[in-house]
Amino acid sequence: MRCDEFLIAREAGSLLAKMRARIHAARCPACAEVARRFAAVRRDLSAPAAIGERERTLWMGAAGSDARAGAARAPAPARAAAAAALAAAAALIAVAAIWIVKPGKTPQVAGPGDLRVSTLVEEIQLQNEEIRASLVALSEEINALSREAALLDERREVRQLLEREGRP
Questions:
Q1: Quick check: 12 and 38 in contact, CB under 8 A?
Q2: How many CB atoms lie within 10 A of CB 41?
Q3: Which of 7, 67, 117, 124 would you label with 142, given CA atoms 20 to 30 Å apart?
Q4: Are 148 and 140 contacting, i.e. CB atoms less than 8 angstroms apart?
Q5: Same domain, 94 and 22
Q6: pTM (2 decimals)?
Q7: CB 2 within 8 A of CB 14
Q8: Whole-Å CA distances, 164 to 36, 66, 67, 157, 159
Q9: So what's the pLDDT on residue 30?
Q10: Percentage of residues in the chain with pLDDT exceeding 70?
Q11: Does residue 23 surpass a pLDDT of 90?
Q12: Are 118 and 107 a contacting pair, CB within 8 Å?
């Protein structure tokens, strides 16, 4: 092995190439020094850097708590609005389900042989399918609005963090 192949073989080579690089470093003082320095740089870069109070406060603020007080952050207005929207959607779905079922409301027919019964049943089934489709569309729209509200909330929080740091 040549010295110019040593570091590549030691770090990115196959098992055999790594073994050959170790043998070469045992015989070559220059490559042994390169391996020692490389290991020191790797150790230094893998150690977490200490952060100051300012950076810690910024990170803790982004994580959702005040670093000095340790208190939990109050719910943001956008999150409260999203929760209210979801509660309203649940109420709407419950009302719609009750309206679809309507206990005690059956169509008035003249008798079992009346042909209007099948027509009424088909109309009711069609109305139920339309209402269900409307409920699904409403639910999807509420979910989209909830995601948008959460995104707006996160954007507002980022803007506030940047303003605290004096960045535009």
A1: no
A2: 10
A3: 124
A4: no
A5: no
A6: 0.32
A7: no
A8: 44, 13, 14, 11, 9
A9: 92
A10: 78
A11: yes
A12: no
**What's the average model confidence in pLDDT over 134-151?**
84
What is the three-class DSSP state of 78?
helix
| CA 27 to each of CA 5, 22, 30, 126: distance values in angstroms, whole numbers, following the listed order | 15, 9, 9, 87
- Domains held by the chain: number: 2
Tallying the residues shown for the chain, one arrives at 168
Q: Does residue 82 contact residue 149 with C-beta atoms inside 8 Å?
A: yes
**Burial class for 131, CB neighbours closer than 10 Å (0-12, 13-18, 19+):** middle
Number of neighbouring beta carbons within 10 Å of residue 98: 10
The Cα–Cα gap between 107 and 121 comes to 9
Judgement on whether residues 80 and 138 belong to the same structural domain of the protein: yes
Residue 65 φ then ψ, to 5°: -145, 155
Residue 72, beta-bridge partner list: 65
- The two tokens of residue 92 are 């709407």
Q: Which domain holds residue 11?
A: 3-47
